[in-house]
Amino acid sequence: MSYQYPPVDYIEPVFRPPSEANSLILQVTNGCSWNRCTFCEMYIDPQKKFKPKSEGDVLTEIERCGQSLAGVRRVFLGDGDAMVLSFKRLKAILEAIRLHLPAVTRVSAYALPSNLRNKTVEQLQELQQLGLKLIYVGAESGDDQVLSCIDKGETFASTLDSLTKAKQAGIKTSVMLINGIGGVRYSKQHALASAQLINQAQPDYLATLVLFSRRGDERLIQGYGGEFKTLSQRQLFQEMELFLSNLKLERTIFRSDHASNFLVLKGVLNRDLESMLTQLRRAIDTPEKVFLRGDSQRSL
């Protein structure tokens, strides 16, 4: 069966989580409302300057999708942070999806912690009842010093508060962390503080990727005061081992399979923790005996 392109006017490039590959992407905003993180290269192109798409255009696109894509079951609200939109506008979008795409069982979106904090638990509960079932939060790190250096605009407390609020509203959370974001100097505190954040938040999903750059590390290095040493492959594994070994999770689905990762890890934490730690220790001690992605396989 040939692929049917949705009747949506996209501003390229369009970004979405890997797990939303089969979802209908509705671009309700263009770009990221913060767009200051020193490591991020997703929204730096001129055409990705942040701007909400007009409500009328979005509702029209949803109606058009309903006419040609009636069987859609999942919708992702793009771009960088749909949750920056007001509660009223998000409610209108979700109501339109329910009306015109009745087969949809899950709506999801990226979310900055700061924009979750701008909504009450009651408002988030109403959005959840209208179909918003999952939010993706790029926490990056749980360490306040690292967060300050990368100009994240968040703290341990602000990120935890937003994740807790989402959980209280019944919305599932998927948290992303960056292996190596603290460099050599802050590697240990990054790993330990990130583990503490995840332990307190108990997210439904957890993912890690390795720090990478297509256009150079100048902005990142400046954020660290001109001193930033990238972790070696072995040091990345050691940081990950320290992070995982300090997790105490009830049931969190874990994925470390982004294209940037040398070693692919998958499982449920803490159920599969020991097997993951065994894989990491083999990669640290005898990397030649473990399947690791080469540079060609990590093309980003």
Overview of the structural elements:
This protein is of the alpha/beta class. The protein has one domain: Alpha-Beta Barrel (TIM Barrel), CATH 3.20.20. It is about 35% helix and about 15% strand. The chain is built from ten helices and ten strands. The strands form two sheets. An eight-stranded mixed β-sheet has the order 1-4-5-6-7-8-9-10. It is globular and about 55 Å long.
Provide mean pLDDT, rounded. 93
| CATH architecture descriptor text | Alpha-Beta Barrel
Summarize the biggest pleated sheet. Answer: 8 strands, mixed
CATH fold-type name: TIM Barrel
Number of strands: 10
CATH superfamily: Aldolase class I
The CATH C-level class name: Alpha Beta
